[in-house]
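writing this on my phone so excuse typos. first protein, seq and then structure
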Amino acid sequence: MLDDFFTRALVAAVGVALVAGPLGCFIIWRRMAYFGDTLSHAALLGVALSLLLEVNTTLTVAVVSVIVAVLLLFLRRSDTLSSDALLGLLSHSALALGLVCLAFMTWVRVDLLGLLFGDILAVTRIDIAMIYGGGGLVLCVLALIWRRLFAATVSPDLAAGEGLQPDRTDLVFMVLTAVVIAISLKIIGALLITALLIIPAAAARRLSSTPEQMAVVAGLTGAASAVGGLYASLHYDTPSGPSIVVAAMVLFAVSLVPGGLIVRRMVSKTRGDRP
């Protein structure tokens, strides 16, 4: 089944989308879209370091993304700069450092467009195993911390008062986001990862009536975007990564029309919820 490159691409893209959807819901709720951009830009620095040190790219990207996330959390506590200023500083600094490092490594040939926009058609069985293994772990951890993370999202002070340790939960959430970005880099590219996290979740928000329902719908919307984008890429000979994002945008646009309200009511009725 996985001998065909297009089948491998489909399986990998669906796996990434199913994980990115639920995680993207919290990014939407917490208004942390720029945080996703920051980690995705840090991914490029991780790629450069992996080539320089000759170590596994996915692991290095995950480590660098976690370091950037922890650094952001530490700097936010110092109240030196506002959160958006810190995100901008870390985002562009990491991206620039990555590009400069790649430029110095003249002995290494790097497909920069592939890093920025993804090369899903080159995905291997090992990549698929990492996506589903890492993605499954992320979803399990997310399910375990769901209550605490949701409480910290609604009211950090109330969560702290109930002894739910919102700071520790925030750190775990950042690590999960870093892992998803690391396993998504080859699929969608550093510049488009945030779109896969945000757009399906934004579309699901208008079609859901509960947080849990939104997480499920976001994953399914992302999977539909992945399949639709890849088939459109095959048919129209367009780049695969951007095609997936365009498909997600189309689904989001559909969710905005009055028909999206009908879909929402149908979903709510099926689950026994009030629309």
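second protein below, same order as before
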Amino acid sequence: MNIELSFAEKFLYHIWDGKHLHISLKTVDNKEIKVMYAGQWNTDSGPDFKFGIIQIDGEVCKGDIEIHKNTYDWINHKHQEDMNFNNVILHVVYNHNTQYPATILENGNLIPILEIKNQLSEDIKKLQDKFAGESFSRSEDFCSFFAGLDNNSIKMILVKLGLERLEKKINRFSAELYFTDFNQLFLQGLLESLGYSKNKFQMLQLSTLLPYNKLKEFKSKGLTKDQLIALWLGCSGLIEHIPATIPKEWSYKWSELYHNQSITSEYKNLEWKLFRIRPINHPVVRLLQVSDLIYKSLDDSLFNQLLNLFSFSRENFTISKFKKKLYKFFEIDWMELPENIHLGKTRIDTICINIILPLIILYARKMTYPDLESSAFQIFKDYNKLPENHITRHMNKFMQESQRKIISKKAIFQQGILKIYYDFCRNHNCIICKSRRNNLLGIDDVID
């Protein structure tokens, strides 16, 4: 598809940056070109895009990309005399108007020319209507961690960092296990996870205010599920903050049960943060969502029930079968509880990655069950993406579209992104971050 030459050269930047080209490209001397990474637009002097990655006849090349309306513009702009252009690996032009099939660098090397006027995608007319008269501006912030990373490298790095983040969670639970047991660890992790950012600490406090072994003791003395809910709400101060989404008769029932109970005198005002909280994230709603699970487990062991999720033969295992068991594990057998406030699958997925798998791996190591440990690791590596949060959305702006697509496929990649953010980005440790990336890639650091 051709377009008229009555456009600013920077319009071609939009074409290149957005990959508005055929999938299979040919240079003027008939070499096959595949664009793996378009590069980072250069706002300084020198080539138009830095850190590009392309395949030329199957060979991967990394370097800079220069873009012109006409091939001869290279000479008009005196690039053949400028050593700053010696790292260019591809000369992209709209119209090839010289007799030579290659462009000559200052150092005498030859680079291929890609003429794009007959290799444009079908959506170029819309792009021209939108951008032909506009100057090109940097659409994403620059980050040297992601710049120049091909898809295989970013996968390799994020898998390593995702596993490191998993180990940090395992180590945290391992330290806490010194003071308690696996039943209590799961209760603590579960409630903390349901507290979200505003009430994580308060929910964790509740799990220690009424620990699992005490709840088992209360159940042996006749504790009902409604009494369990009444104790949670009353002992934590939530009894005064039941949201309007909960039927009034339930609120009255739990309040009466708490004030008339003689089971425990424990009470602590946990200073709940409820301002502008979404109804589904209200801690009362979150406690109702797991009350069925916790109450039913009190006759046996909460962690033993969790272990049953992993009782499958390796030969018949699939991630979909595991997730089906996982969602059933959290199902609420409580007809009166409205369906719209049941625990959602995406929240269960997050609990699995952040709480269940680290605990299972820790247990497998303590008990020397290598098959169980291996299964849990495999689930972690295969698990599909989790919901985005403000951190992953923030990190997305530093990536190319192809990189964002990779991150959106698996939870382990997202965990790797979170590790980058917490280790480096939030403290603006860009130099250390780049050094860490190079270390993971096996590249020696070079001081500029």
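The mean pLDDT is 88. thats all i got for now
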